[in-house]
Amino acid sequence: MSRTSKYALAFLLLALSTGQALAQKQKMPSLEKGEPPPGEAMKMTVGIANAVLRDLLARRYLVVTKPGFLVPGQTWGETKSITIKTDMLLFDYDIATKDKHYTQHAKLVFSDIGNYFSTNSKGEYYYADYPHLNKIYRDLSGSLDVLAWAKQKDAQRFADALNRLLYESHVNKNPPLDNSAFNALAATWRKDPSVRPKPPEEWERHRLMAEEHFKENDHIAALESYEAAIAAWPPWAEGWFNAALLYSELGEFTCAADRMKHYLELMPDAPDAKAARAKVLIWEEKAKE
To answer: How far, in Å, CA of 187 to CA of 38, rounded?
Structure first.
């Protein structure tokens, strides 16, 4: 193949990939209009989304830029100081060149999304574009390629988790948790256990997977399975209790306290109820820090 043919083929492939990316972007729901994000985002709780972001930031692919003519390349390395708030995501990462090593600060303010890329857009969701995730944040240098993973599924999972938090920040506005409907049901089940629904088939599948993931020390996957299990069968007190402990292990204390409150509504006189109430108080204080 001639050099000209190679250039033409490369240009065609680039055009096709750009066209696919634009088509994917055009299909995205509108954050500005309050539409829910695509993919698996809404299957995550806010606590799980936070944990997923921290986990994947810690496991970023160490990106190496190609050096230009007589210009050394850069390696964007280890992630440090990860902070996730209701309105922004912050973290630091190392940058190494042939001659120096320093730390860069990355900051994504959720309310600013869309303003970087279009003066007509007030908000947009993100998508994964293999092998890296595009348009995640603006750091001080304006780079957008620092967030990258070797596997497409990891990039997509990061996009889903981030989109979940964007939806919460822009649309749901982080409303206080309201358990009144569940508390009323729990009171009915305690008063007359015969009216408590039987567990569906899907509950058993989620329960088994939660236990399997926990044995494998994959706490995020275990928590997702526990959440699916208690959604399928809310009377499962043990599931609420285990979910609370896992949220606590992951540092998501608001969700931990909430899940333990569900457990106490179902089992107010359990032998460990006093200890569970103490955990709720501790977790609620930690959530304020």
So the answer is: 36
Residues 6+ apart with CB under 8 A from 175: none
Please provide residue 206's backbone torsions phi and psi, each rounded to the nearest 5 degrees: -65, -40
* Domain shared by 145 and 258, yes or no: no
Q: Each residue of 208-266: pLDDT tens digit?
A: 999 999 999 999 999 999 999 999 999 999 999 999 999 999 999 999 999 999 999 99
pLDDT tens, position by position, 203-215: 999 999 999 999 9
Give yes or no: residues 254 and 128 share one domain.
no
CATH code of residue 246: 1.25.40.10
C-alpha 106: how far from chain center: 17
CB atoms within 10 A of CB 194: 5
Domain that holds residue 234: 180-288
- The terminus-to-terminus CA distance of the chain in angstroms comes to 63
Q: Which of 172, 195, 218 is the last residue of a domain?
A: 172
**How much is the pTM?**
0.79
